[in-house]
Structures are given as structure tokens and as C-alpha cells.
Amino acid sequence: MALPRAARTQRRTRIQEAKEEQILEAALEVFSLHGFRGATVDQIAEVAGMSKPNLLYYFRTKEAMHRALITRVLDTWLDPLREFDAEGNPVSEIRSYIRRKLEMARDFPRESRLFANEILQGAPNIEDELKGPLKSLVDEKAEVIRTWAKAGKIARCDPYHLIFSIWSTTQHYADFDVQVRAVLGQNQAGEGRFEDAARFLEQLFLTGLNISEQPA
Amino acid sequence: MALPRAARTQRRTRIQEAKEEQILEAALEVFSLHGFRGATVDQIAEVAGMSKPNLLYYFRTKEAMHRALITRVLDTWLDPLREFDAEGNPVSEIRSYIRRKLEMARDFPRESRLFANEILQGAPNIEDELKGPLKSLVDEKAEVIRTWAKAGKIARCDPYHLIFSIWSTTQHYADFDVQVRAVLGQNQAGEGRFEDAARFLEQLFLTGLNISEQPA
DNA sequence: TGATAATTTGACCGGTTGGTAAACATTACA
DNA sequence: TGTAATGTTTACCAACCGGTCAAATTATCA
Fold this sequence. Notes:
2 copies of one chain form a homodimer.
Chain A: H1 14-38, H2 41-48, H3 52-58, H4 62-82, H5 90-107, H6 109-120, H7 127-150, H8 159-175, H9 177-184, H10 192-209
Helix pairs in contact in A: 1-2, 1-4, 1-6, 4-6, 5-8, 5-10, 6-8
The structure holds a DNA duplex.
């Protein structure tokens, strides 16, 4: 008799590995486009190229799929912030952070939208992870920024709102892509907008935080 | 026999006016919380305090409700940008714009989330309005900003990405409210975060655009 | 090979959902 | 007041959706 994945002893076969990957890829596609409630298991099954019961053999419920996906995405989503280095040069650290976040928005828009969908709906499934690991990491990096400000390396500013503003400006290009394209029009529809955005955001943040420009 | 609203001759009775308002208020509540697909007509009817068929007497379909709501919200959403004045002082214009957008995020988070939901799902119902009225307005204001830059009143920068960054940073406090609260923690849970955000964003944008020391 | 476990599928089920039919109630107004 | 238009409700339906079941198919390996 076939046991569902969670009940299996330990080793994952190559088939399991491949199929689960295939399913999560399809689930990402569908969830990011329609949200949790808007996505249907049939849709995901079709995109994954398998029958619905087959899909439910690997993930027992729609929610299990979503949970697996969200957990994975939240993790990679935080990677750029983890690389934020207290020992580094503030200017290059902040510049790199903006670059990395913008690259993620460009290369992994579905992941960004999945996350945005979840937060928008009140983050019913990941509130704990937000208040735990996420908050801890942000607290830590905020302290770094505060130290830089106290040392006069960057302008004094609220480090939390600085992080929020970097998050929002960069993710905007993934989450609000349709709007960005509509406003920029056909001529700018190519990937050039990411280069323009990078240039603008670097100017905004680096000048905005430059100690020499800082008003008393 | 009762005819649905759209087929009626012309005059809207006071009852119609009141009920439609009541319905849209409830629809806003539910749609902004669960998205279009996640919201159910029964839910909206319950929040509106009326039976489902009664609700469907005023709006024949769930989609009609959503369309009416989106159109209205898009309109008020653009109001702050409309007030952006070419004749004004760049410093105060940009500062006021940030303030107004932030106030909207604080006072009308449901509207912001409804809109965000729609864009996130690919804006299936309002793509035309984005490419038409929205783009026109942004084009117009972008030209104003460009003029200011050429006149040396503010730093040279891409006006479109400047507008995007103001949109994203301010709306972030409505759309990602759960995350913001989670990161800031209990102590900052009050409305103080909006004041802090305003202070930070003003500093960021005004300094970032090199206009903090411009005379009025 | 044969037997056992893992995988896949068509048919199906109960609950939900958007929407309808038609009878009933209320309001507007001649 | 009478009556026609407007407003409201109960009962209901067909489609959809998440998930189950049992039977069939395929992979694993002694």
C-alpha cells in the first residue's frame, strides 16, 4: 500500500525528489499568480503535468504545498540581508544590498509575489516566522546600521525604516510589475528598467545617507 | 417586477444610494482582506448585513462589485499625485506628496491593499486604466520633475523611478503592515511608526535629491 | 522471474460558491 | 386608498473544489 510522504521512513527516492520539485515549481507558478485561495489543485496538477490524485500523493493537502513553498521562499528571500556585513564599508554594503534585492526582483518575481500575497492576506501561516527569525535578523542588522550612524559613517536615520524602504522600492519591480510596465510604456518594456532602477535607487540611498549632505 | 440596477431608467432612489454604499463598504472590507477569489459573496452579504440575493439585486455579479470598487479606489488613489503642482516649490511639493501618500496608507489601508491585490494578480480588470489615465498623469508629472531637474532645482534623476519609489515606500506601510508590525515589535505597534516613517522618508528623499538646502 | 512496495489514475463524494426563481413585503405615488 | 414599481427573502441549483478510494500500473530487488 502506498503511504503518503510524511509517513515514509526516511530516504527520498529520486522519483520523489524530482516529482516534489516539479510540483513546487508548478505550485509557485500558480500560487504567485492567483494567491492561495485563487489557486486550485487542478490547476497546479495541470501545470505540473500530472493527475490531481498523483499530486496529492506527494503533498497531502493544498496547504502543505503552500507551506513548503513559503518556508523555502522566506529563506532565500532573507539571504541578501544575511550577507549584510558589519565589517564592510557602509557605502558598498548598502549598494550591494540594493543590487542583490533588485536582482532577486528581476530573476525571481514569482517568489516575490508569492511572499507579497502572503503578507497582504495577513500572513496567516508565517506570522511566527516574521516575529521570530525575521525580526531577529532585522534587529541585528539595524544595530549595525545604527553603529555606522553613530560613528559618523552614514547619516543618522531610523535603521528599520531604512530597511523597509530598501525592501519596498526593490520588490516593487516584481510585485507591481504590471503597473511599472504600464506606466513606462512599450519602449521601456525591456529589462532596461532594472538598470535604470538600480541607478536611481543607488543615487537616492547613497546620497540620501551621505553624511556630507546630512542636515543638522 | 424588480429590474437589476443597470437596467433601470435613470434616477437612483435614496435606498439604492444607501444600499450600494453599504455593499461597497462591505466589499472593500472583504476583498481587501482576502482578494477577489478569496472573498465570497456570502461573506460580503453578511458584513453588509443583508441577504445574498438582496446584495445581488444591487450588483448582479461579484465581478460587478469588484469593478465598481476598483474604479473608485483607483481614482482616489491618484488624487495626491494630481495635486502635485508644477508651479510649486519642489521641496514642499515632494514633501507634501510623501505626506499625503503616507496618510493614505495610514487612513485607508484597505483601499491600498485592494489595489495591491489587483496589481499583484496581473491587474486583469484595470490594465486599460493603467495604460491610459494613470500613465498620462504620471507622464505629465514626470515632465514637471524633469523640468525641475533641468532648472537645477533638484538633482538629476529618473522621474519615473522617483515616483515609483515614493509609491512603494509609502504604500509599504499599508500593504505590508503585518510585516512592519512584526519587525518593529510590540513597543512600536502604535501609530508612531507613521511619524517615524514620515521623518525618515522626508530625509531620504529630500537629501537624496539634493534639495534640502534649497531656498523656498 | 516473482513478489512486494511505490506510483499513478479514473471515478467519485460532500461541501462550498456564484447565481437564479419566484413568492412575499414594502414603498412611492396617482 | 389602490396599485404598480421597488425591495427582500426562502429555497434551490449547477458548477467547482479539495480530497478520498480502490484498482491498475510501474519500479525495486531478493
